[in-house]
Amino acid sequence: MDWISPRALTRLGMLNMNRRNVDYISRYNDRTSYPLVDNKLKTKLVVAEYGVKTPKLLQVVRQQHEIPHFREMAEDLTGFAIKPAKGSGGKGITVITGRDGDEFIKASGARVPAAYLERHLSNILAGLYSLAGTPDVAIVENLVESVPGLAKYSHQGVPDIRIIIFQGYPVMAMLRLATTASDGKANLHQGAVGVGLDIGTGKSLNSVQFNRPITLHPDTGLALENIDIADWEEMLTMASRCYEATGLGYMGVDLVVDINEGPLLLELNARPGLAIQMANGRGLVPRLRAIEGLKRHHFTPEQRARFAMDAFSSQQ
Amino acid sequence: MTSRSRIPFFTAIALLILAGTALAIWRHVELGIPWLTGEQRPVWMVEARIDFNAANEPVLASLNIPEQSPGFRILSEQAASPGYGFSVVEKEGSRRAEWSKRDVIGPQTLYFKTQFIPDPNANRDRPRRAPKPISVFWEEPQATAVREILMQAEERSSTPESMTRELIRLMQPDTQAQNTTLLVSGTNHLDLLVRMLNHAGIPARTADGLKLEDARRRQGLTPFLQIYNGDEWLTFDPKSGEQGLPEDTLLWRQGAASLLDVVGGDDSSVSFSILRQTIPALQLAAMQSEENGFGFLSLYQLPVEEQSMFRMLLLLPLGALMVAFMRIVIGIRTSGTFMPVLIAVAFVQTNLLPGLIAFTSVVAIGLLMRGYLSSLNLLLVSRISALIILVIFITAGLSIVGYQMGFNTGMTVTFFPMVIIAWTIERMSILWEEEGAHEVVVQGAGSLFVAVCAFLVMDAPLSRHLTFNFPELHFVVLGLILLMGQYTGYKLSELRRFTPMKAYD
């Protein structure tokens, strides 16, 4: 067994679960704003007012009797994603990338009949994936097609960019790449690869999978050290806007870069994980303190993104 | 960085913990509830035996019994006297045990048993109304002798106490003073002292004491002299003049009433047997709580059935504390936050090993059946409902099979909360599908580990004892849980999780 001393962790400024919950989430996140982020449908609507784009909404399944209509709607679709509106941690998200006769092809390559998807929808409505087991609605979204520059790094699934926004300032970012182990999902605890991104430039820093440092993608075998995200400042600005939209002081913003639509907001998370620190090789605490210590906050998302790029860059 | 002060919060927690501890200590001191289980307290069992010869006529035997004996509390009283009617009556401020029977002949024996608990603070004898000295008439030549002796004693004393001591010293038969010899001849020494003190304006009376020694039989009573000093009755040894009651002496009779009256019999006598017993301190406290002013605050007053329910309920906070500790400080993942506590409660009823076997087999069989259910494409609610029924079937099956094979422990599965088990199976099954068997094993083992820890804490005799007898200690548990809610340090599991960060240190 290998351990790290609490003192070393404090020195690195690593944010831990308890401090995140007590000092940041419960202090800066107003409970009344939670439904905005815990319900993807509401998120979509509220961020649209602030000019943040999300994947196109194809259908909302609210009632059990609407499920048969899903088959009609899906007739002429090739790629789409079914999501529980109140799902958390990527649970219950099924991504269909294509068709093979009557069967649908999942992101993992597995073929499933329409009945499988209907059962999945039924499960979503019953609340199987929702946070408190409450009844839920299912949303069907257009499949996001990632830009080839990023897509090549990811095995199945769409690579997404997680940015931690603290009081409207981007403080840390990482690129999440799906792997075989993660079944096409971009969640780190399911085995996705996390690549830390320099807030100043959008260039990759370190990479981790299952909390262990790696240098090559386990499936594609590509080196992960020279990734450079295009339009970085725009993406940071877009993430910062979500602060105005939701009012949440501490949240994770998940963005994807679509080949047609550009950066899209995938979802917001009021309880973002801590693994991002390991992907970046540094702790969040010093950056959070820096923001808390600001005498006067910047007003516009553009200013905040610019400030963060200067303050939290790794190039100094 | 703190935007609001946490001082009020921590003060409140400190107060909570302090209040809980202080209340517990106070109840320990005041009600004598022991800290540990199995603590024993000495109790004196005194048996008065009355012997007399009945003369073939209605008999009424009346024995003076103690009511408030300085330094002792009465725990229980019991009369043994076959064929006699028995009652305890209050007469002129003293308590008497009365036996009665219509036709009696020959030697008779009656018993009266009392249990006393030594308690130094009990019953200091303060009468509500100050007693008055009884006027005494003396004939000559005693009147002069008494007057002279009292004058001598008064000259050398200042208080009723010193006066009494002085008088006893002057009245020693070996003093050889003329006046003393005149008075002492032919009369009862103690009665004489009482009369003289009353004459001197000091209320006085006789009392009978019993020397308590273990395993003594046929003991008699020792006479004592008592005077009233304006505040309370004080006891003197009429021979030595020593003030105060000797240690381990119980005043069986105080005041003027006679010790034993037997109507319809002769040759009556009282003798005492003494036995030192020990009884659990807890039982003692429970018995006394009724008398104590604050006894109503304790759970002993509830009917026994409710008491046993509370015994269980009051263990739950310990389980909750355990779960909070394991999740916040250690960082063990469990399936369902408080599922482990409910499982631990079931373990308390089933015992650990049978409980573990029963629980794992029910969940394992349930997981297999759930595999079939998931292929049926059911709605969640009906799936869970079906699972509950299946869990009950599994339970019944295990019980029957276990019973036929000769294991009574098979029956213990019925203690498990069925709905919780059904939900556990459902969650585990979904976990299996989504995150793989590894996560199921991690969370399942984590839940069982926490459940076993909670069980061990809840099943310890000491914690059962403390939670039930000192419910106020739950303030402390509450305080600790609130404190943990403010813990912002690293979890033990995070020290392992963040190990790769060593490279950047």
From TrEMBL, chain A:
One of its GO terms (cellular component) is cytoplasm. SUPFAM superfamilies: Glutathione synthetase ATP-binding domain-like (SSF56059). InterPro entries: ATP-grasp, RimK-rel_E_lig, RimK-rel_E_lig_ATP-grasp. It comes from the Bacteria. Residues 44-295 form the ATP-grasp domain. The keyword Manganese applies. PROSITE patterns: ATP_GRASP (PS50975). One of its GO terms (molecular function) is ATP binding. The keyword Translocase does not apply. Keywords: ATP-binding, Manganese, Nucleotide-binding. One of its GO terms (biological process) is SOS response. Pfam families: ATPgrasp_ST. PANTHER family: BETA-CITRYLGLUTAMATE SYNTHASE B-RELATED, RIBOSOMAL PROTEIN S6 MODIFICATION PROTEIN. NCBIfam families: rimK_rel_E_lig. This is ATP-grasp domain-containing protein. The lineage of its organism: Bacteria, Pseudomonadati, Pseudomonadota, Gammaproteobacteria, Pseudomonadales.
